## 1
Amino acid sequence: MQSDLKPNFYLLDKPKTWTSQDLCTKLKKNYKFKKVGHSGTLDPNADGLMLLATNGYTKLFDYVEHTDKTYKVTAILGYSSPTLDVDSDLTFHESIDANNFSDDIKNFLTNLLGESIQTPPIYSAVKVKGKRLYKYARKDEEVDIPTRKIKVDNTKLISLEENKVIFEITVSKGTYIRSIVEDLGKYLNTKAVVESLTRSAIGNLKINHKKLNKNIQNMDYKTNLYSLDWKEVINLPIVELDKDMFDVIKNGQLLTNDLFINKEKYILSINNEIAAIYKPFNENNFKPDKVLI
């Protein structure tokens, strides 16, 4: 059964080895969407949740407030690699039993909590002077990697198994888990790489969501595509408008303040679909911030 092709948000379980763009292309081709975008890249070596939007809803990612992400991570101690994971050639350094460093590992995870400055991996999609960092790395070109502020909201040590550390972590958008695992190795005076990475939550959207689209490898145009209720994704006040306001919104006309309760951004909905985002303009009017129709 094919989707109704209306613009919306979709929650997908990305398979390992797939790129984030692979997922967008799959949806675009199978369901004939004009445009498909995602809320944040997930490494090919990782699996788990990705939030996608189609057609006009791709304009709405800037209004998604709850963008923190939760991951289950398996790190291997005593190894290094150029990509900081098992996707490139591994170099063995030493045999380590993670159980001998239990207290140190717990301290490391606790110390991560709060804000800090992170340097992304050289093998990443971060752009410097219009060029992805991994392209510099592949050509062995020198580049200054810009740092970024990140926030870690929660960490939980799940288990220690031989040379492996398995933990859960909730981080702000744009945080690289591979860099955190590299830092874990440094903290223990050794090396460490990511063996597996599963994104289990994006904000309030969890891996057990009833509208999660699974088995992406086997998806075709006949597969039913489950859409999210956009109210789960964007937390803005809503004004429901009649159909006769369609042209007014489409033409981006100003709206009087009496339609709105507070001076803040609003979703304007027609037939339970987002028509536009409006924001305060002056003493008397609101103006469009984004128009989708």
## 2
Amino acid sequence: MSPLRKKMIKDMKLRRFSQDTQRLYVYAVEDLAKFYNRSPDRISQEEVWEYLLHLQEERKLKWSSCNSMAAGINFFYKNTLRYPNTKFKIPKKKQTRKLPVIFSRSELDILFNATENLRDRLILITAYSAGLRISEVVALKPEHIESSRRLIRVEQGKGNKDRYTLLSDRLLKELKIYYKRYHPKEYLFYPQGGISRSLTKSRVHKIFTKVKEKAGFRRDGGIHALRHSFATHLLEDGVDLYSIKNFLGHSSISTTMIYLRLTDNRIKIIRSPFDISVSQSMEGHHGYDA
């Protein structure tokens, strides 16, 4: 490992960056160096901009991916190389905002029943019933399940924050069966033949994709749709927005407020003007010949 990489990792650890962020930032600088076949401390800021343009125009990376790479390079130049005036940030283009995909409760039953084994079933049920991010699901340990309090402890979630979320009675019953069959030790969910290791996020994504295809669902939406469904269903059941914010681990209530646009409680009680006026005047006058 080069001295520059060691210093960068040390700088990130001092700032308590998550392991995922550390890996991403190191990869960004490593990829930049490979692109120019040169040590990153010998690459000019103008060349960095050319590289970022390459990611956008040639590799066709999404804005979020490009900006994550820019953030890693920005950190390296500003904190590791001590160039204070460095600022690499890709302007965000205007986008049409899509609403998150939400599964109905009946669709979720179909989805959970399409899993191949108990472990995969409980991974998906846990993600939905507790509103967890995929990174939080794979990081769960047996001691995080506080059955007596009906709570799940989420340690160092997004933003390095701890929180509690709900532990479903139905999930707890199935977890007891899971414990007897799988005997988890270090992590709640582990790969075959690796009881002391956690599942990778990519593996969980593959599990969800396979189950969704088996269930016959053709809609867009990855495993994060389970978290969206959790929040939306709570709101439909009358749970207050502030509690949902805390369960999800959102920093701001404005982030949670998007789910107000997804609930169908208000939609169910509002009638179309066509039903109220036009259709009434047309009853019995279809205008078709007998």
## 3
Amino acid sequence: MVESSSLELLCDEEPFLLTPATSPVPAQRGPHSCFPEPPPPSHSNITDEECSQAFQDYILRERHYAPCVGYSEHLHRFTHLSTARTKAIRYIILVCSRLGLATGTAFNAVNYLDRFFSMNCRMKWEVWMTDLLSVACLSIASKLDEVNTPSLHHLQTEDLNHCFQPSTIQQMELTVLKTLDWRLSCVTPYSYVHLLTWHIHSSLSARVTHLLLRALLDTTFVDFAASTIAVSAMRCVVQTGALFSTLSRLIPVERMSDVDNCHKIMARRIMDPHNKNDGPWSPVSVIPTL
């Protein structure tokens, strides 16, 4: 666990402005540069057996990349922690959209963020600390997922309250890596999207991804496993008997009650058109329009 004093050694500096530079050219992803992007071709010829095996492998791995037990309770108990998390995720999603980064990069960055927060949830998270952690997590995820990694300068947008020297961000990256025990190849709800949607129209796949992005900002879903969240989003978008039959083969029986609960919450909090959650921190005001 990273103590407050050690974190301050890395970050305690006055904000400063970086020299303006030309904006990077967003990565080209077909007709739409914003995520969600279409499923990769490698999944187009996957068999049902291969899909099922990959799904089970992810389920076995996902618990190793979940936040610490009690994290959700701390988020609901301490407003400053929940606010810091929302602000950080908002920044990650916006930057990924503006720079044309892969959807998986955003989900991985949020995973690192949640795991780090959960190990340091008793700290008093000040704004500059959250800003620095957000940039560090996104930088790490970009290095893992992107072919063309954006510079640290371009990751620091006007959505942040502070700017940091590259050396400070790099030190924070190292702190995050050590805290996470260098376990970066995480399983997130987005990991399941291609396995669940490879056989359906790409527009439905995009809707599933859009729901998952919105769910990232809602602390209610922190309690649920990644697979549970992914399957719940799929059920919200595609409601057919064939789908339920497929999901019943993929999801362990003991998890079906969690899927039902998560699906109901998602339908009520995200899918319900009468839910007027349009505040400045709401998913509606953050996620790019598809």
